[in-house]
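Hey, I'm writing a tutorial for new members on how sequence and structure tokens pair up, and I'd like a real worked example in the thread rather than a made-up one. If someone can provide the structure for the chain below, I'll link this post from the tutorial.
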Amino acid sequence: MALIYQPNGNLPAGIHILTIDQLKIDLGFTKKRRDLIVGLLEAIKDLKACNCTKLYVDGSFASNCDHPNDYDACYDVSTPFLRQ
């Protein structure tokens, strides 16, 4: 299901769960966004290698802004990571 933005361009408050494919479709609607997603996917790959299962994306990237400067993201610290 596609994301539905409010009239101000933001998503409704809350957590919107997306698969990687949905993220590419729903948030990659301009070339600038697709370019940012390339870096985000690298971060996701690294976090996944550490057994991270939850990543939250926020900021203008989680709005309908055509040209966000970046994405804001954080991961769930309760997710098990490999420990030395």
